[in-house]
Amino acid sequence: MSVHKNVKKITTHTLQEMKSQGQRISMLTGYDFSMARILDQAGIDVILVGDSASNVMAGHETTLPITLDQMIYHGASVVRAIERALVVVDLPFGSYQGNSKEALSSAIRIMKETGAHAVKMEGGQEILESIQRILTAGIPVMGHLGLTPQSIYKFGTYTVRAKEESEANQLIEDALALEKAGCFAIVLEKIPAVLAEKVSKMLHIPIIGIGAGSGVDGQVLVAHDMLGINNEFNPRFLRKYNNLHEQMLTAFQSFITDVRSGDFPNEKEQY
Questions:
Q1: CATH no., domain 12-240
Q2: Mean pLDDT by 10 residues, the chain (271 residues)
Q3: What is the pTM of this model?
Q4: Is 164 a catalytic residue?
Q5: Per the residue annotation, which of 102, 189, 197, 267 is the catalytic one?
Q6: What are the sequence ranges of the domains in the chain?
């Protein structure tokens, strides 16, 4: 592992400066040591240890089943790999909704047991008390509005949110409330680009979009999606930067063929 001397770590303050200077923020998900090390070496600004691990790593249909203990396992694995990036860990479903005491103890466990730098929480004014309590303990909070996958059963669908004026106004109110409470950034997921840009201009804190157009302060994708490891998932907002599904499949098949034919290992590959 290359050890950079005098690496300038990304902090919540750095992100704020980036927004002020018009520099775009890059964020990708990471769930394990090996991938996080590559992300960090690439120079990513933020690694999100997303509860999308529930889908990507564990094969669940939704993000709901993943537990706090599992999120801590993923978070700690990522933190061991990084030298520069800001690491944000999702508070999983059920660890903060409706009970600000539980929310605080969940956030404290994540910070103490993973070494991460911040937590992320889905929702607006309905979780404000939990957010405020966590912030009071000195733990940075990233908000998440728009399509909030933990509420998927409430929405009943993964379609674009806040197309109606009433929901759009609610989202703006929620965003302002999160900023006022002290969140250092907000993720906006699957909302109209015009609305996302409006929020980004109204707020002083960075707005990071996923399916929220280009008028925001940064972008996030799920690493496994943009690498083309998951080839079933093709929403409009996803740009695939590789087709690793194909490359990995080919590599595995070549290994199987070489083992069966006796070609692997050859003389140079043994002792």
A1: 3.20.20.60
A2: 70 98 98 98 98 97 97 98 98 95 98 98 97 98 97 93 96 98 98 98 98 98 97 92 97 98 97 97
A3: 0.96
A4: no
A5: 189
A6: 12-240, 243-271
